[in-house]
Design brief:
The complex is a heterodimer of chains A (689) and B (176).
Chain A: H1 2-28, H2 33-52, H3 56-73, H4 81-98, H5 100-103, H6 106-129, E1 150-158, H7 169-179, E2 180-187, E3 205-212, H8 216-222, E4 230-238, H9 246-258, H10 264-274, H11 288-299, H12 306-333, H13 336-360, E5 361-363, H14 365-381, E6 386-391, E7 396-398, H15 399-420, H16 424-429, E8 436-445, E9 448-455, H17 462-471, H18 483-488, H19 511-520, E10 524-530, E11 534-542, E12 547-555, E13 558-563, E14 567-574, H20 575-579, E15 585-588, E16 591-596, H21 598-601, E17 611-619, E18 622-628, E19 630-638, E20 652-657, E21 663-667, H22 669-679
Parallel strand pairs in A: 6-8, 13-21, 16-18
Antiparallel strand pairs in A: 1-3, 1-4, 2-3, 5-7, 8-9, 9-11, 10-11, 12-13, 12-19, 14-17, 15-16, 17-18, 20-21
Helix pairs in contact in A: 1-2, 1-4, 1-14, 2-3, 3-4, 3-6, 4-6, 12-13, 14-15, 15-19
Chain B: E1 9-17, E2 20-25, E3 29-34, E4 48-54, E5 57-63, H1 64-67, E6 80-88, E7 91-99, E8 101-109, E9 128-134, E10 137-142, H2 144-149, H3 164-175
Parallel strand pairs in B: 2-10, 5-7
Antiparallel strand pairs in B: 1-2, 1-8, 3-6, 4-5, 6-7, 9-10
Classes of the chains: A alpha+beta (689), B mainly beta (176).
C-alpha cells in the first residue's frame, strides 16, 4: 500500500503542476474550453486518487474546487480574477496536503477550512444570483444552480477481477450518492456456493437509481478509473426526481425484494404510467473522449525512477573508464585483432554514453511554470505590471543541473522584479511602456547552454555601485575599475544595492549565493546593464556534469586534464623564452600572450627540459598561456569529485582515473587564472589585437 | 572475556606515529592499504597529501603525522593507509590516513579505558576519547570523527603545554 501511496504522491504532484500551468494559461485566455477541461481533468484525477489512497483531505478539498469549475465548464459561471487567485492558493494548499506530516499541522488545518469556506462562498455567491430549485433534496449539498433534477438508472457490474486493482466498488457507490439522492439495489444472484467462492473476486453487481442535477458526464466520471473493469450502463429515466415519487419508491422496494434484474422496458412502462412527463430514453452514453486522449499522451514516454538513471550513468562512466584501459592495453599488446575489438568497444561505449546522457537531459520547460507563477504573484504583490516571456523552453540540460538551477534563477527573477522593473507611473515618466518585460531565453552555444534573463527596467547604476563598495570598504577609493569589474561587485558577499530591504529580495545574501550555486554546477554568471534600459544576466552552463572532453597534459609526474572547450591552441616554446621574462609575456604567432608558468604557480621545481608546451586557453575575452611539460593528447574524462577535503581547492574541479589506474586532476582554467592573477599583480596593460 | 551490560568490549586498531601509539575504533576503519601512487593536488594544505585511486573512486589522503604536528611521513615498508569512514557535517565521507605502521587489534573492556588526562597532554582533549594500557605502554584512543572533520592544522596543540612554542613553529612551517 505504501508503494501505491508513493506512486500516488508522485502522480498527484504532476497533476498539481499541470493544474497550475493550466490555470496560469487560463488567466490569459479565460474562455478556452480545452484549458478548462484540462483543469477539470487534473482536479478529478486528484480527487479520485486522493480518495482511493486515503488522502481524504485532498479528495474533499478538490471536490469543492471541482464544483466551481464544473459550473465554469457548463458556462454557468465566468472565470474571475478572484476565482483564479483562490484556485492558485488552493493549489499551493494541495501541495502541502500531499505531505502527510505537514497536512496534520494545525496551521494547515486552519488554512484548509478557510479555503473551503472561501470556495463555498464563491459557489453560493453564484447561487444567490440564480433561482433555487425547490425540489432539491437535502442530501444534495452542492446545489448546482437552476439545473433541474433528473433521474438516472445506472447498471454497474464490476468484473470479477476488480479487487486486484485495489478498487472498492462500494466507494464508487458512495461517490454516486454524493452527487444527489440514490437508491442502490445490490444483486447477489451471481454469488456461487460457499465452497466455490473465491474471496478475491467480486460477484455482486448493482443497479442504482440516482436523482441528481449533474449531467450524465459527471456520472460517467465517477467510474473513470474502472471503466475497463466493469460493464456500465447509464440511462436517463426521467426529467423529474422519481425518488420523490411514492409509487416509484414502492416499486424499487419491490424490485429489491425480488432480487431480479430490472427489466428496463418494464421500468419504462412503469414510469410512463406514473409520470406524465416521460421522454424517450437516451441512448447509452460514454464519455471516452477525454480519457482516450490522456492515454495517448502516456504511451510516448515511460516513468523511470531517478535512482535508476543515476545508477545507469554511474555504470556508463565506469564503462568509459574501463574502455580507456582496454584501448591502452590493446595498443601495448600490439595484437591487431585485439586492437580492432578495442576500437569497436570504444565506438559502442561512446554511443552508449551519448545515449545515456540524452536520457538524463530534460527540457528547462519543467521549471518554467514555477517562474511564471512567481512573476505573476510577485508583480501583483509589488503592484507592478510585468509580462514574462520565455524563449527556448525546449533547451535541454542535465537533470541535476536543472535541480540546482531553480533557486538561483528564482533569485535573479526576484531581483529583476523588485529592483529592475520600475513602477508603471515611473516607467511612463521615462517614456517606456507601462508594462515591464522580463525575458528568459535559453539556447545552445557550442558545448554549453546559455540562459539569459533580461529586463527592461532601470538598470544598474555603476556609480552608485562604486560609491557603495567604497563605503563598505570593499574597494579603495582611488582604484580604477572597468564597467564590467564594477558590475561584478554585485557578486561580492554582503553587497546589496537597495537602501530599503524588502520582503522580496535584498537581504544581502543575494547575488553571491547565486554565483556560488551556479559555480557548484560548473557554470558562470555574467551581468551586463545599461542605466535606464535594463539589465541582462547571462548564465553559462555545461551540458552535463559527468563527462568532459579534455586535453591530457603532464606536469612533473602528475597528469592534468584541461577542458577542451577552453583550449585555443598549443605551442612548443623554448624553455629560456619562458623563464627569463619579467612581465610573463610570450610572443606566439606575432602576438603577445600573457602566460602562467604552472610549475611555479604550483610550487614545483623549474623544468630543465629545453622545450616546453604552452597551452593557450580562453579566459574571458583574452588568450592566456599555461605551460606544461608535455601534452599527452585528447582524453574523455569521467569526472569524479575530489570531495569535501579539497573543497578549498577551487582551481581543481575534479579528478578522473586514467587507463593505467592513476589519477589525473581536472583543471578549472577560469578559476585558476583568476586566482593566479590575484596573486601576481600584473601592472602592464594586456594588449591584444 | 565475557560480555555483559557493564563491561562492554570494543575493538580498537592500534597504529604508530613516530614513537607514539594511538588507537582508533575498528568500526571507523574500513580498510588497510599498502602504499600506492599518490597524485598530489597543487595548492592544498600540507597535511593533505593528495588523492589515490581506491577501486575506481578518488580517495583524499591525509598525512596524519602533519595533522598531529609532526614532520612529514617518510615512506617505509611499514607505511600504511587506513581508509576511514568519517562523519562530517551530517554526511559520511571516506578519507585515507597515512600512518607509520599498523600494530594490532586490541579488545578493550570499557573499564580499561581511562579518561583522557586534563593537563600535561600536548593534544587537545576533545580529540582523545580515552587512554588505555597495553603491554606496559599507554595508548591514546582517538576520536577520528573529530580529528578528520576539522580543517584546523595545529589542532592538537594545547595552549597550556610547555611545548607550545616549539609546536607553533612546526605548524607554521607546515602551513607554508
Amino acid at each position: 500500500m505504501e508503494n501505491f501511496k508513493a506512486k500516488f504522491v508522485e502522480e498527484a504532484t504532476e497533476h498539481i503542476n499541470d493544474l497550475e500551468s493550466a490555470l496560469l494559461l487560463l488567466e490569459k485566455n479565460s474562455t478556452d474550453k480545452a484549458l478548462i477541461e484540462r483543469v477539470f481533468r487534473a482536479m478529478h484525477s486528484l480527487k479520485g486518487g486522493g480518495a482511493m489512497f486515503g488522502f481524504e483531505k485532498i479528495s474533499e478539498f478538490t471536490h469543492h474546487l471541482e464544483t466551481v469549475y464544473d459550473l465554469v465548464r457548463n458556462e454557468e459561471m465566468e472565470i474571475s480574477e478572484n476565482m483564479l487567485n483562490l484556485t492558485l492558493a488552493a493549489v499551493d494548499h494541495l501541495k502541502l496536503l500531499l505531505n502527510e506530516d505537514i497536512s496534520e499541522s494545525e496551521e494547515t488545518e486552519q488554512q484548509h477550512y478557510k479555503l473551503i469556506e472561501d470556495i463555498t462562498k464563491l459557489i453560493s455567491e453564484k447561487e444567490s444570483k440564480s433561482d433555487n430549485n425547490e425540489n432539491l433534496p437535502e442530501s444534495a449539498i452542492e446545489k448546482t444552480g437552476n439545473q433541474p433534477i433528473k433521474t438516472y438508472f445506472i447498471h454497474f457490474e464490476p468484473s470479477e477481477e476488480i479487487f486486484n486493482n485495489g478498487t472498492n466498488p462500494l466507494y464508487l457507490l458512495d461517490e454516486l450518492n454524493s452527487l444527489g439522492e440514490s437508491v442502490a439495489i445490490p444483486h447477489l444472484n451471481k454469488i456461487p456456493e460457499l465452497n466455490k467462492l473465491n474471496p478475491q473476486k467480486c460477484y455482486t453487481y448493482w443497479e442504482v437509481f440516482l436523482a441528481t442535477s449533474e449531467d450524465i458526464n459527471t456520472i460517467t466520471d465517477v467510474f473513470i478509473f474502472v471503466e475497463e473493469e466493469c460493464t456500465l450502463e447509464i440511462q436517463h429515466l426521467s426529467d423529474h426526481n422519481l425518488l420523490k415519487n411514492d409509487a416509484f419508491v414502492a416499486k424499487t422496494r419491490e424490485i429489491r425484494k425480488s432480487g431480479k434484474d430490472i427489466g428496463i422496458t418494464e421500468l419504462q412502462n412503469f414510469i410512463k404510467t406514473i409520470s406524465t412527463n416521460t421522454r424517450q430514453l437516451q441512448k447509452k452514453q460514454t464519455n471516452s473522449k477525454t480519457t482516450s486522449k490522456a492515454k495517448e499522451n502516456a504511451i510516448s514516454s515511460i516513468r523511470v525512477s531517478s535512482d535508476k538513471l543515476d545508477h545507469l550513468m554511474n555504470l556508463v562512466s565506469e564503462l568509459v573508464t574501463t574502455q580507456a584501459r582496454l584501448s591502452l592495453f590493446a595498443e601495448e599488446e600490439g595484437n591487431p585483432e585485439l586492437v580492432m575489438i578495442a576500437e569497436n568497444v570504444q565506438k559502442l561505449s561512446r554511443q552508449l554514453r551519448d545515449n545515456a546522457f540524452s536520457i538524463v537531459l530534460i527540457p528547462i520547460e519543467n521549471m518554467l511554470t514555477r517562474f511564471q507563477r512567481l512573476v505573476r504573484d510577485l508583480s501583483s504583490e509589488l503592484k507592478k505590471e510585468v509580462t514574462f516571456i520565455t524563449e527556448g523552453a525546449e533547451t535541454e540540460l542535465d537533470k541535476t543541473i536543472i535541480e540546482n538551477l531553480a533557486d538561483p534563477l528564482m533569485h535573479i527573477l526576484r531581483n529583476s522584479l523588485d529592483h529592475g522593473i520600475e513602477k508603471a507611473s515611473e516607467r511612463e515618466k521615462h517614456g517606456k511602456p507601462r508594462q515591464g518585460k522580463i525575458v528568459l531565453k535559453a539556447f545552445y552555444s557550442g558545448a554549453s547552454v546559455h540562459i539569459k534573463i533580461s529586463d527592461d527596467g532601470a538598470g544598474i547604476d555603476t556609480d552608485r555601485l562604486r560609491e557603495k563598495a567604497i563605503h563598505k570598504g570593499l574597494i579603495s577609493a582611488d582604484i580604477q575599475l572597468s564597467k564590467k569589474e564594477l558590475l561584478d561587485l554585485i557578486f561580492i558577499p554582503g553587497f546589496s544595492t537597495t537602501e530599503k530591504i524588502t520582503d522580496v529580495s535584498g537581504r544581502g545574501v543575494g547575488m553571491d549565493v547565486v554565483r556560488r550555486k551556479i559555480s557548484d554546477i560548473r557554470g558562470e554568471v555574467e551581468v551586463d546593464s545599461t542605466i535606464g534600459a535594463g539589465t541582462t544576466i547571462t548564465i553559462k552552463l555545461p551540458l552535463t556534469l559527468s563527462i568532459i572532453d579534455g586535453l591530457l597534459v603532464r606536469i612533473t609526474d602528475t597528469h592534468y586534464v584541461i577542458p577542451l572547450s577552453a583550449v585555443d591552441k598549443i605551442f612548443a616554446v623554448e624553455h629560456n623564452k619562458l623563464v627569463n621574462t619579467f612581465n610573463n609575456l610570450v610572443i606566439l604567432e606575432e602576438e603577445q600572450v600573457p602566460f602562467y608558468y604552472l610549475r611555479e604557480e604550483f610550487g614545483l621545481p623549474e623544468n630543465t627540459a629545453e622545450t616546453e608546451q604552452v597551452v593557450v586557453v580562453r579566459y574571458e575575452e583574452k588568450r592566456i598561456g599555461l605551460t606544461v611539460d608535455e601534452v599527452v593528447g585528447e582524453y574523455q574524462a569521467v569526472l569524479k569529485p575530489l570531495g569535501k577535503y579539497y573543497k578549498e581547492q577551487e582551481i581543481i574541479s575534479g579528478a578522473t582515473i586514467l587507463g593505467d589506474g592513476t589519477i589525473a586532476l581536472v583543471l578549472d582554467t577560469n578559476k585558476a587564472i583568476k586566482q593566479f592573477s590575484k596573486q601576481n599583480i600584473i601592472t602592464e596593460e594586456i594588449t591584444n589585437d | 572475556m565475557t560480555k555483559n551490560e557493564e563491561n562492554k568490549i570494543n575493538s580498537y586498531l592500534s597504529f604508530k606515529l613516530g614513537e607514539e601509539t594511538f588507537a582508533a575504533n575498528v568500526g571507523k576503519v574500513l580498510n588497510i592499504l599498502e602504499m600506492v601512487k599518490i597524485t598530489k593536488v597543487p595548492k592544498a594544505p600540507a597535511y593533505m597529501k593528495g588523492v589515490i585511486n581506491l577501486r575506481g573512486t578518488v580517495l583524499p589522503l591525509v598525512d596524519t603525522r602533519v595533522k598531529f604536528g609532526m614532520s612529514e611521513t617518510e615512506y617505509t615498508a611499514n607505511t600504511c593507509i587506513l581508509v576511514l569512514d568519517i562523519d562530517m557535517d551530517n554526511d559520511t565521507v571516506q578519507v585515507g590516513a597515512l600512518v607509520d605502521s599498523v600494530q594490532e587489534v586490541l579488545e578493550l573492556n570499557d573499564k580499561e579505558i581511562l579518561p583522557p588526562p586534563s593537563i600535561g597532554s600536548k593534544y587537545k582533549s576533545e580529540f582523545i576519547e580515552g587512554m588505555a594500557r597495553s603491554n606496559d605502554q599507554f595508548i591514546m584512543i582517538l576520536n577520528m570523527d573529530m580529528i578528520f572533520s576539522t580543517d584546523e592544522l595545529a589542532m592538537l596543540r594545547d595552549t597550556t603545554s610547555e611545548q607550545e612554542e616549539q609546536l607553533a613553529e612546526e605548524s607554521e612551517e607546515a602551513e607554508k
